[in-house]
Amino acid sequence: MTWVAGADGSAYGVTNLPYGVFVHDGREPRIGVRIGDFVLDLAGAEAAGLVLAAGALGRPTLNDFMTLGRPQWTAVRQRVTELLTDVAHRAAVEPLLVPLDEVRLLLPFEVADYVDFYSSEHHAGNVGQIFRPGQPPLLPNWRHLPIGYHGRAGTVVVSGTPVVRPSGQRPGADGPTYGPSARLDIEAEVGFVVGVPSPLGAQVSVDDFTDHVFGVVLVNDWSARDIQAWEYQPLGPFLGKSFATSVSAWVTPLDALTDAFVPAPEQEPPVVDYLRDVPHRGLDLRIVVEWNGERVSEPPFATMYWTPAQQLAHLTVNGASLRTGDLYASGTVSGPERGQVGSFLELTWGGAEPVQLGGGEQRTFLEDGDTVTITATAPGPDGTTIALGEVTGTILPPR
Amino acid sequence: MTWVAGADGSAYGVTNLPYGVFVHDGREPRIGVRIGDFVLDLAGAEAAGLVLAAGALGRPTLNDFMTLGRPQWTAVRQRVTELLTDVAHRAAVEPLLVPLDEVRLLLPFEVADYVDFYSSEHHAGNVGQIFRPGQPPLLPNWRHLPIGYHGRAGTVVVSGTPVVRPSGQRPGADGPTYGPSARLDIEAEVGFVVGVPSPLGAQVSVDDFTDHVFGVVLVNDWSARDIQAWEYQPLGPFLGKSFATSVSAWVTPLDALTDAFVPAPEQEPPVVDYLRDVPHRGLDLRIVVEWNGERVSEPPFATMYWTPAQQLAHLTVNGASLRTGDLYASGTVSGPERGQVGSFLELTWGGAEPVQLGGGEQRTFLEDGDTVTITATAPGPDGTTIALGEVTGTILPPR
Description:
five-stranded antiparallel beta sheet, 2 domains, Fumarylacetoacetate hydrolase, domain 2, SH3 type barrels, alpha+beta, homodimer, globular
């Protein structure tokens, strides 16, 4: 129970408390925690001595705070919970609450490296069927390791940032042509944000996941399928992805997701030792994709074949170091049903089966002016339901 | 002519003047310029009012200086040239010269995003022949666009950093096995360092190359061929590359390379408009690869099919933004002859033809303890020859 009006019973009650960075009233960007429809100014709270975090809360990104490590993350969360639940603190804390509709939310952390995995069996299988019909949908390596690649960290943008339709080379009957992408798509994903770094040459074990990962964001990995199809062999996606990747403005701390862990799908054949996580756990995040306000899909994150702990262990098995701010995304989340897919490529089966939106509009891929919003909920502590921060974006015409 | 002893006639005379970051005498890291066998302390020079650069020379990386843009880069270079050639400045400047063998060189810039291209026709053709014998060596897209992908920025290390042999999954007869890479290789490349950023959604034209690119480094893109072969489909190289990428400690400014531009190979079929650079120019950098001190290859950078201006235009054609510190590498540099290849994969033709090193030792791929050093020279201003900073590394056993 919190004394903040309207927060109890909402998906942003005291069991949630995601972190973000906001601008208000012309002041410097600062860290805040969302509670109900308010943002608690943590920079102000630390300056007033209400919470202690080595000065890290007074910074314009979460990076310094995320470097501190799990004991400090948990201590700050406990203290913030006290401040928002014990009425004795109300007089001191209430002036630090800012209405959400008065703030502008910024990219909450400086992205170090961005890695994108490909860990949904249903997504990889659908893509295989669409692009390689008649062949085995999964490539031979897929069940042995979490396939991934590096994306462009510099074009990770915060939810709400408009996305200019990218141009590039697309395949044509008489060779490639240059022009705006005609197959602009989304990928609904979940991203994991690294707080605690690791040294070059060392491996991070599956057991050390919660020591390194601070929290979770929702991700829309916008994808230009025509550009991607022409460029991706043999070195993988490049310009088909690098124009923009949107993340939610709120980072949900892992401490808010302790009740969301569920057994992950069984893996067959058995994985090699460094990928064996016991317990083998995924997260029960229920994602919703809205296209121009219409709910078109509900991807279940619990169906992911590879878990975030396995992804982290794989990412570092070759000795690659971690930096604070590293972001690794799950890959498109798709469940077994057509109404559970995380891309429009799958929803329209390669563009062959348009979907009907409200007002009789039909869509295959994204049109200029379209808006896509991805949200998610999860079982929170104490029987509550918590929301992850939404990630939304609107397509602008090509320049 | 410089008054610095021993510099005239060396490959680090006043027509070269590369930038680096060094530590000396326990003081904070600072920016310096190499002249002969000395480093000119530019932080000290700026503090003494001998050179003006908005305070950017007092920083521990080149990033702030690189943000200033070409007019400032050229002005600082001209001023440093004056200081080192006009004996009137000798008394003030000489105390700022530090012997090279007393300094430790650091990574000269903070890497924002790292992109690796694949722009040598001979390299791509060799790889095609080795891995897809009997098929056309180049894929259909290769002559239409400079193929590239994102690498891991966080594991870019400065020359001299030891490289721990990476472990991971390698393909085996009965499925993948885990262990140290048995096919550890190099890739001799040239890297371009972005100084001036560009906004998201905008394209950078081929004509704007010199406005954005500050300078050049030598790159060794260490590659574990067995890990790469198993993981790379369908999303490209990941752990086979991400354990370490070495760059030279010295960044050679483009202003030192004005005489090194030469016509690039003719492109057929003609490229689409955004890739048409007039003049179509590459750089006459003559690379040397030494394996345990033995010269094994001399890759000619002038043979590269795609030019750095084309690579930059391609990288941004989809609206991807540039940040200060972005590094994009050419891809392995290989000429038409076996003695001109930039990887040991090619030098030993997939490991089938071992090379003979000094003392009767034979090699296919890298053994623990091996050292690889890549150097390069180029035609400098006024008929001089200038050296690019070397990039060297020694393989350590797996942990």
